[in-house]
Structure formats: structure tokens, C-alpha cells
Amino acid sequence: MHREPSASFDRGALNYIRQAAERGIYDIRGMGAKRPVPNFDDLVFLTASASRYPLEGYREACHLETTLGSRYAKQPVVLQSPITIAGMSFGALSANVKEALGKAATEAGISTTTGDGGMTDEERQSSKTLVYQCLPSRYGFNPDDLRRADALELVLGQGAKPGGGGMLLGQKVSERVAQMRTLPAGIDQRSACRHPDWVGPDDLKIKIEELREITDWKIPIYVKMGATRVRDDVKLAVKAGADVVVIDGMQGGTAATQQVFIEHTGIPTLAALPLAVEALEELDVADEVQLIISGGIRSGADVAKALALGADAVAIGQGVLIALGCNHDSYVQDGKNHDATEDYAGLDTAPGFCHHCQSGLCPVGITTQDPVLEQRLSPARGAQQLGNYLQVLEMELTTLARACGKSNVHHLEREDLVALTLEAAAMARVPLAGTSWIPGNS
Amino acid sequence: MERVTHLDLANLTIREVNQFLHHELDASQTAQVDIQNPDGKHSIAAGMDVDVTVNILGHAGYFVAGMNKQATVTIHGNVGWSVAENIMSGTVRVTGHASQCTAASGHGGLVVIEGNASSRCGISMKGCDIVVRGDVGHFAGFMAQAGRLVVCGDAGPHLGDSLYEAILYVRGNIASLGADAQQQEMTPDDIQALSELLAASGIEAEPHEFKKVASARRLYHWNATERQEY
Q1: How do residues A344-397 score in pLDDT, each as one tens digit?
Q2: Max Cα-Cα span within chain A
Q3: Model confidence over B155-166: pLDDT tens digits?
Q4: Nearest neighbour of B123 by CB, restricted to A28, A183, A196
Q5: Using CA atoms, how far apart are residues A274 and B192, in angstroms rounded to an integer?
Q6: Which of A138, A143, A169 faces B124 most closely, judged by CB atoms?
Q7: Contacts of A187 in chain B (CB under 8 A)
Q8: How close A147 gets to chain B, by Cα (Å)?
């Protein structure tokens, strides 16, 4: 018997409709978009040969130092590499994880970032360079922590849910998390999607000035946005006085939001980055305002390609969590390896497929507030694994930069790249491989 | 004798004024600062963290006394958006009217508006107290988490929408309640708390004439049957 599958109503669509009919509520989950979209894998480097000469991979220096916030701040952030750890909240992550992030970032000479819910003492103490987020909810936001921050990131949105607010379901709202957020423990915390004290770009300019006054113009102010109308949004952030603009593409992760948000809003990181760069160039501030790109950055190759397209640095969230053991089939506790597959099964998933950060039942102890589960990742082990990952990223980044003949990773340029697909060529504004054709360019 | 320092914004920049307020009060042994010619400028006295009296002699713009700690700030005039936003402690008083978002996300301290306050007064408040002698606009107390908002006049539409644990007291008419806000019975504890708040704010009103609005707590947990048509 011939069975004709429906392209419109495939297995995924059937499952979605049946589940909706059964439950009457949409899916809430963590992580980022899972649908295939054009990404950095669709680009390759044109490394050196006769027309360019490379640098010796293991002997000649290739500099990574990155300065962020040189526009107005008296004390810009100086990092040892163009990699930052993206904002992830205590609440979404355990205190152990936040401490591990701080330790690894400090060891690597890079920054880490707070998140919704405020700054913990553990992350401040473990992080040499800590970026303090100011989010619409203002949970835990206070002037004392603001003054002990190394930079401020004013969050207008994030790639996983641009236009949406945060969400922390009750099972992760422990007494400590609740106390930091001035809310009752155990309730579902739905954060605001707009800031409470300003609306629109004209107000944003005044808000940034206020924050600069409060911090005596010392620390850089970043403005983070989900990637939607990137060109306009970047220009408005620059006009409002941002030192650094952070653009988070649709592959960017979250601890919890509606699946419809994750898969159906925003544009891919690859498409967002050139738009942001062009906006800075059109305002003639590309050398003045730094650009951080995030959303699905995984490897040193991704970092190198992002820099070549014009980013000054990248922010990594999900890659960092995976380095800590997210979606791994086991965890190490008390020096022993423990199988976690049954715990994944309890969430109706399996290692490699899990996106149940919202549940608070993370089988490897990362996205949890459960006192038993959080012991599955020690700060020391997490910092070691993350440190290794960051080291590999830097090694891969400099390997590619040297092969392109660059003694500084920030010298990578768009001319070093070609695209393997039409879509990537059009989005990244680089030629289709083997041609000089950039779709969309007249 | 307490020293009074006069700062004139006709001749000084906001940066110079705030630099003095943040770092030079001790050296100058100042107990009171009078700021002249504010002329609607923004961020005046933002980021204070010292027990001092500041008088702003005229109308101020956005974010006046933002993130205030300890200081007693009086604006002798009207203010723009978000006066005393994120206030932590101390007192901020406005002798005139306030525009939108008074004391947004304020954690502590007392904010007194002697005139009317516009929309979203007390939005996202996290423990501060607000007393308004006049009326408040729409969505007052929106997503307010903790603290108390006292309105001696009328409240506009959607009062207390999506309230958490903040308590709202209104003497006049309430145009409408927002999602999950409900009127509750005034208890002796409420009368006592309200009396103390009114006394602290220097506003005379009879506590028994007020209505109490608090959260019904129906939105505290995800509800599949609610359809989110709040």
C-alpha cells in the first residue's frame, strides 16, 4: 500500500496539533531555536596561499586582546580574548554554575554576565570582570551592585524571545531566588517585557545618561537586543549613547519561554551581524562603538567568522552550558561517573535532545535550584571543563587568523570569507564560493 | 551650625552637580544642598548615597533622585518621568505633580507626591512606600511586588494590574481594577499602617475612608485554563 506523507502535516505538525488538543496549553522550554537556519557553518575562510602569506601557526604571535566600552566610559573593559560569557541568571542556573562561570572566565581573562534576578556574592567574588544586567523586571537591581560592576548591560531583549519577557517557573524559585527577586517562593515568575521607567529610544538616551551619572561615567554601558529590525535598532542604541551594542540572534538560548517564541521570532545570527555592522558603518562609529554578537556561537571557527564579519567580540551561553555537561549522558560526583539517562527519561527526553531547563530538574545539575541535583556539578570541575573549552576556542580562532595572515584576530575581515550557499552569501554579504557574486548587491 | 551649599544649574552641569553630591559632601561638611535653576533637567541628584537634605528649587525632568539611598530630596515643583526610580531608602518629595512611572521598581524609602501622579505610578515597586495627595493615572501599581501605594484622590483604570504582594490604598474612586487585583477588607493593621504612612508623608487624611486593593493571587501559577486573556 502506498502511503503518501503530507508535507504540510508532517509528523512534527501532527504531534504539535495533537498535543495542543490534548493539553490546551503551549509548550514552554529552554535552549534556542532547533530549526535549521543559515549559520556560520555556511561560510569558509579563504586562507593564505600565493596572494596572501600566512603566519607561522605555532611560533608567531596572534593577539586576542579586546577592549569594550571605549566610547564614553572612563574605565573600558579589557579582555584577553574576544569572548564573553552571556547573561544567564542565578535562578535559571545554580549557584555552583554561576561560580564556575566566574572562575573560568577569570582564568581566561574574559568577562561573565549576571542575568535576571541580580548579582550574587559568589559570582562577584569569582569574576574578575563582571557585567551587570539591567532587565525590565529589575529583579534584584540595586545601586550597590551597579557600582561594583565592571560594565552595565541594559537588556531590551534577547534572541530567543525578542519582544517577550522572562519566565522562571515556580519549581526553580527557591527561598534564596525569591528573596533576591522580592517575590514569594514557589510562584511562577513572569518578568516584564518592557522596562518600567522608560519607553522608546528618546527615553533610552535619558536613561543611559542617568545610569552614567549614577556610576560617575566610569563603567561601559552595553545595550543588548534580540535580532529583529537590527539596522534600525542598532542605530537607535548608538544614538542613545551605548558604548557597546549586543545583538542576540534567533539561535540564542533561554532558560524558559514559549516554543512559539523560540522558533518563530527574530532572525538568524548570520543575518543579524552584517546588518549591525552596516548600521555602525553608516553612522561612522564602527571604530567607536563595539559590537558583540551572540546566538548559537559554538566553536573557534564561529568566533573567527563573527570577527571577520565585523563583530568585536562574541557572547556564548548555550555552548558554555554544554561545556559544563549540559545534555551529557553522565555526570561526575564524588570522583565517580554517574549515569544520568534515567533522569533524562524522567523528563521524557534523552541526552542530546534535552531542552527542559524550565523544569528545574536538570539531570546534570546545571539549570536547577534543587539542592540534590545541583551537587552534580562542582564549581571546580565546571570551571576546569569550561576553561578547556575556552582555550580550544582561542586556539582555533588564532589558528584561522594566522592562516589568513593576521597577527591580530581583530584584523580578520569580510574579504577573508566566502559562502557555501546562496542564502548565506546574501545574509553575510560575502561572495558565493567560486564566484564574485553577492546576492542582493547590484 | 549646619552648612548649606548652593548649586546653580544655570552655571553648572548635571555631571558637576552629581559629582559634588556623590563625592564632595563630606569634605565640604554640607548638611543641606539647594539646587537652583533645575529648569527641567534630567537625572538631578541621581545615585545619592548619603544622609543629606537636597532641595531642588524648581521643576525637574526625568529620573530625578533615581536610585536614591539615604538622602532626603525635595523637588519644589513638578517632575518628569520616573522620579525616584529604584529608590532604596531615604525620602523623595515632590511638591507639584509627577509624570509617569513614579518610583518605578523602588525597593525602599518613601516617595511623596503632593499633587497628582500620572500613569504607572508605583510600577514594579519592590518595597518602597508611595503617598500621593491627588490622583493617579492608569495602571498604577502595575506588577507591584512589595511596598504600599497610598492614593488620597482617585485612581485611573486598571489599578493594580498583575499585582504581586504590594498593597494599594485609595480614598477616592477607582475607575477599574486590573487583572488579578481585588478590593479587600481594611483590617486594623491596615488602618495602623496607613495612619503611619500618612503621618510620615505629612498629608492629612482619614484612614477609615480608604479602600484596600491587593492581589487575588490567581496569576501566581501557570493556569492552562485561563487562556491568558487577563
Answers
A1: 999 999 999 999 999 999 999 999 999 999 999 999 999 999 999 999 999 999
A2: 76
A3: 999 999 999 999
A4: A196
A5: 61
A6: A138
A7: 220-221
A8: 10
A248 min Cα distance to partner chain B (Å): 26
Test A213 with B18 for CB contact under 8 angstroms. Answer: yes
Test mutation, A213, A219, A261, A358, chain B, max B CBs within 10 A: A213
ipTM of the predicted structure?
A: 0.96
Is B223 a member of any domain? no
Domain residue ranges of chain A, discontinuous segments joined by +: 28-322+379-428
Any domain includes B228? no
The answer to whether residue B227 sits within a structural domain is no
At residue B229 the predicted structure's pLDDT band, cuts being 50, 70 and 90, is: very low
| Subunit contact A142:B123, Cβ cutoff 8 A | no
B35-64 pLDDT, tens per residue?
999 999 999 999 999 999 999 999 999 999
Is domain A28-322+379-428 annotated with CATH 3.20.20.70? yes
- Cα–Cα distance between A378 and A384 in angstroms, integer? 10
- The partner residue sitting opposite A196, judged by closest CB among B105, B164, B224, is B105
Q: Supply the range of the domain harboring residue B142.
A: 3-215
Task: Provide the pLDDT confidence category of residue A59 given band limits of 50, 70 and 90.
Answer: confident
Report the C-alpha gap between A205 and A188 in whole angstroms: 33
Say which of A24, A182, A210 has its CB closest to residue B145.
A182
Q: What CATH number is associated with residue B120?
A: 2.160.20.60
What the block records as the C-alpha cell of A111 is: 568577562
How far apart CA B55 and CA B93 sit, in angstroms, is 10
Q: Do B85 and A188 touch (CB under 8 A)?
A: no
Q: Best residue in A142, A144, A145, A197 to probe B by mutation, most B CBs within 10 Å?
A: A197
CA distance B159 to B166: 12
Query: Cβ neighbours of residue B158 under 8 Å, at least 6 residues apart?
Result: B138, B139, B142, B176, B177, B178, B179
Each residue of A71-116: pLDDT tens digit?
999 999 999 999 999 999 998 999 999 999 999 999 999 999 999 9
**Does B225 contact chain A (CB < 8 Å)?**
yes
DSSP letter, residue A56: P
Residue at B230 is within a domain? no
Domain count, chain B: 1
